[in-house]
Amino acid sequence: MDKLISAVTAWVVGVIAALGYGGIVILMAIESACVPLPSEITMPFAGYLVSTGRFALQTTAVAGAIGCLLGSYVAYFVGASGGRWFLERYGRYVLIAPHEIELADWFFERWGSATVFWARLLPVVRTFIAFPAGVARMRLLPFTIYTLIGSYLWCLGLTYAGRQLGRHWQALGPYFHRFDSVIGGLLVAGGIYFVYRRLRSVGILGGAIPARQD
Are 112 and 150 in contact (CB under 8 A)? Predict the structure, then answer.
């Protein structure tokens, strides 16, 4: 895990160092296009650069939010144009049960705006929320507004944290590394449990949840 984190971190640092604010936009767009590139690395490092005077706090947060929005558009339109067809036919092979498509329609019809906003403030979930929003055909204007606002708050918080850490960044590294094996074990155990539950849900292991009745 230490090597993986170090490699990802080095790449993120290199992109931001080479492209400045444009690098932040690109990296955050990649994450929001359903590629798990942690914003927890991108934005705090940008915050560190704020502490050195290279970047401005608000401009950095806005760049991150714009990147999130652009990447979210990609995931949204993929979901809206072909996601439903794919999920209805092959969803079980990516561990999505048929009734969950209907549930997503209902959920985004009733709570869509709030869902997108709050999901943008949650780790992991924020990376994938745009795709089901597209599948559910959430209206584009509220999707845009709430994605932008939620992403701005998330990016601002991480940037501010990075600025506060400032030059103490490297000194904190050894304390985080001590927990690498524990974190890795928890992730593996959680992943196995998640896959098991999803296999049951879609009926591959039996015990599928019946579709919602109208």
Answer: no
Which token pair is 187? 């992730």
Which ranges constitute the DSSP H helices of 120-139?
125-128, 130-135
Four-point Cα dihedral 206, 209, 210, 212, nearest 10: -160
Domain boundaries, the chain: 2-201
Q: What is the pLDDT of residues 108-144, one digit of tens each?
A: 777 767 888 988 888 767 877 888 888 888 889 999 9
One DSSP character per residue, 142-189 reads HHHHHHHHHHHHHHHHHHHHHHHHGGGHHHHHHHHHTTHHHHHHHHHH
- Please choose, from the candidates 71, 31, 45, the residue with its C-alpha nearest in 3D space to the C-alpha of residue 166: 45
On average, the pLDDT of the chain sits at 77
For 161-200, what is each residue's pLDDT tens digit? 988 887 565 565 555 455 455 545 554 565 566 556 656 6
Query: What stretch of H or E contains 12?
Result: helix 2-19
Of 59, 25, 18, residue with least CA distance to 42: 25
Q: How far apart are CA 199 and CA 124, in angstroms?
A: 21
Query: What are the φ/ψ torsions at residue 72 (nearest 5 degrees)?
Result: -65, -35
**Predicted confidence (pLDDT) at residue 77 exceeds the cutoff of 80:** yes
